[in-house]
Amino acid sequence: MKHRVVGLDGWVQPLPLDFEHDIVIHDLTSPAQLVERIKDATIVYTANQRVTREGIEAATHLQLINCNGTGTDHVDKDAAREHGVTVTHVPAQNTESVAEHAFALYYALRRRVLQAHEIVMASDIWPVGGAALKKLGPPTRTNSEETLVVVGYGALGKYVEKTATALGMKVLIAERKGATVTRPDRTPFDEAIKVGTVFILVAPLDEHTRNMIGESELGAMDPTALIVNVGRGGVVNEQALVDALKSNKIGGAATDVFETEPATKDNSPLVDPSIPNLLLSPHIAWYSKRTIDNTLKIMKSNVENFVAGKPTNVVVAGR
């Protein structure tokens, strides 16, 4: 059969596919445009655009949804399963890039890079004896004084652990929240929350991780602790994080991911310049040449393998 391939968000142009097909790639797809754009599709590419139950049910010829990244929470997997639609993803294609971005955010927070830049740019602070140090606040920690807690222990979590260990940090791997048994290489979640001085979150978003870090967890942390989220928005309760930062319950936070994306002042409490010690980046931790090269190769192989009857990187098995 001749496949109809539709890309919902054209952040990159996919590599040519070696089977008979037509292809249309859209730069962006709004929720209101979804049904019309995929109603005749047999294969859909999506990076971040949501594929809802409504869209899946309207797409009566749909066979495959390929998520062009690790996460699949933007696809209604229950609907896909019910309608026999296969869902595939691109696992671990951005491990190095995302880990490096996480540590870039960490150092920017811990070393107060933006504040130091502002001190120099102001021109009237640095020349005054001791004023620069007063502006920066209390002395910071070095790597050997940090206890870094990794939350989420897939390929990315393991790479974060490796990097942090090489930097001289003490590293703990948090057990799943609410787990009744602690595995030998893990630290109970509640204990990790109390002893960590840095938390790098690389967990996926699901029913077990949504709002995993909330008011009680933030209140139990060391008041100098830093949180860096490069996993998924919604793992940290955004309003609770704002409240913790404004009341100095924690030392700072940085996030590359948001509960609603793109994040704006209208849909996220984090997009507020008055929040102290908060760094934001627009879901770009993945952005590197290696990530793009890896993603394109796996996108191509996922789709071609599916058409050949040998699907790979399957999250939901269709008919």
Automatic annotation (TrEMBL):
Alphabetical keyword list: NAD, Oxidoreductase
Pfam families to which the protein is assigned, alphabetical: 2-Hacid_dh, 2-Hacid_dh_C
Cross-referenced Gene3D superfamilies: NAD(P)-binding Rossmann-like Domain (3.40.50.720)
InterPro entries: D-iso_2-hydroxyacid_DH_PdxB, D-isomer_2_OHA_DH_cat_dom, D-isomer_DH_NAD-bd, NAD(P)-bd_dom_sf
GO molecular function: NAD binding; oxidoreductase activity, acting on the CH-OH group of donors, NAD or NADP as acceptor
Residues covered by the D-isomer specific 2-hydroxyacid dehydrogenase catalytic domain: 21-315
Domain of life per record: Eukaryota
Domain D-isomer specific 2-hydroxyacid dehydrogenase NAD-binding: 104-285
Family recorded in the similarity comment: Belongs to the D-isomer specific 2-hydroxyacid dehydrogenase family.
UniProt protein name: Hydroxypyruvate reductase
Protein's organism: Acrodontium crateriforme
